[in-house]
Amino acid sequence: MSLTHLIDSYCAAWSKEDAEQRRALLLPIWSDGATYTDPTVHAAGAEALLAHISGIQAKHSGACITRTSDVDVHHGIARFAWKFVMPDGSSYPEGLDIVFLDADQKRITRVVGFFGPLARSPVS
Q1: Residues 78, 103, 82, CA angle at the centre, nearest 5°?
Q2: DSSP 8-state class, residue 45
Q3: pLDDT computed for residue 123 by the predictor
Q4: What global pTM score does this model have?
Q5: Pick from 51, 73, 78, 117: most CB atoms within 10 A?
Q6: Pairing between strand 108-115 and 30-38?
Q7: Could you give the C-alpha distances from 68 to 34, 42, 58, 77, 94, in angstroms and in order?
């Protein structure tokens, strides 16, 4: 599986309303003990992440995560931009995920997510 396909499978897991489809997408790419952290949650393990995604889907039925950039990787750490798109086409500001990969770059060991664009510093 290519790294881009791995990341797209991860995004698809966030986008499925059906719990079994989410599980089928996430489990093959999520390492045992992997963690997910964003400003609202820290989820340790696949079950905790699946529960978190279920809560997001319950609040925003039909929403999906769409990758909006190429996947950039070095030293087993990848990053990509994404946006949260509602069924009517509206979306939240783009986010960024930092993804830590296993040695073979076939499974995710950790995700750190950020919401919205970086604030620009004033020019010195």
Answers
A1: 20
A2: S
A3: 79
A4: 0.93
A5: 78
A6: parallel
A7: 24, 24, 24, 18, 8
Q: Indicate if the pLDDT at residue 119 is higher than 90.
A: no
Q: Give which of 70, 63, 78 is closest to 113, Cα–Cα.
A: 78
Assigned token pair, 106: 């076939």
pLDDT at 93: 87
Distance CA 77, CA 71 (A): 10
Dihedral pair phi/psi, residue 26, rounded to 5°: -80, -45
20 burial (CB, 10 Å; 0-12 / 13-18 / 19+) is: exposed
Strand 41-44 versus strand 72-74 pairing type = unpaired
pLDDT one-digit tens code per residue, 48-90: 999 999 999 999 999 999 999 999 999 999 999 999 999 999 9
pLDDT tens digits, one per residue of 24-48:
999 999 999 999 999 999 999 999 9
3-state SS record for 43-76? EECHHHHHHHHHHHHHHCCCCEEEECCCCEEECC
Tokens, residue 66: 């769409």
- The CA distance from 55 to 98, in Å, is 22
